Amino acid sequence: MIGNRQGILSYSKAALLFVSALASILVSGCTLFSPVKNEVRVGLIDTLPLELPQAEGRSATLLLLPPAINPVYDTMRMAYTTRPHEIEYFSRHEWGASPANMLLPLLAQTMENTQSFNTVLTPPHFGSYRYALRSEILTLTQDFTSVPATLVFSLRVQLVDGTSNRVIAGETLSLREPMREETPYAGVVAANIAVANALRQVAEFVLEDAR
């Protein structure tokens, strides 16, 4: 009898352990596959200009060099200012990639959409090309010192002769796009508008000087 009781007790303990382990697995499984609340909002610059100049029939090759960028903005952190000579970064809003990395594919698509070049190249490319476009992001910040708040975007571009490496022409574009409200997301929307306008101006600049 005693042996039977001990066997029953051992069986009960084993069953209890099994149920406890199963419950733990189910709970951890629910936790594992449940949506994780992410408090960081990620903004993208992904808007192309709707209207572009066209110059069909050119057989030249255009190389787009990786955009340089002011070190202050060479980060996924989203910059803003509330007083002169000072930059801060939002704690719960950031870019999906660095501004330079977001700009390069937009530049490439914009220049391809002009249908003005036989080929538009991006690195890595080690072959010959007729023209190269250098670009540098000087400013990308949400300015809350103005009324209304404004997205400030500045871009310097240079068109270079691929044969002589001589700078054919250069231009600095400075855009200020009003924000609809004083929020980081409104700044993201304004950044997309400003960059799209800048891309259109870059296309006009390149087509004007790449003759």
From TrEMBL:
Origin: domain of life: Bacteria
Pfam families per UniProt: ABC_trans_aux
Matches recorded under InterPro entries: ABC_trans_aux
Residues in ABC-type transport auxiliary lipoprotein component domain copies: 51-203
Protein's name according to its UniProt entry: Cholesterol transport system auxiliary component
Organism: Microbulbifer hydrolyticus
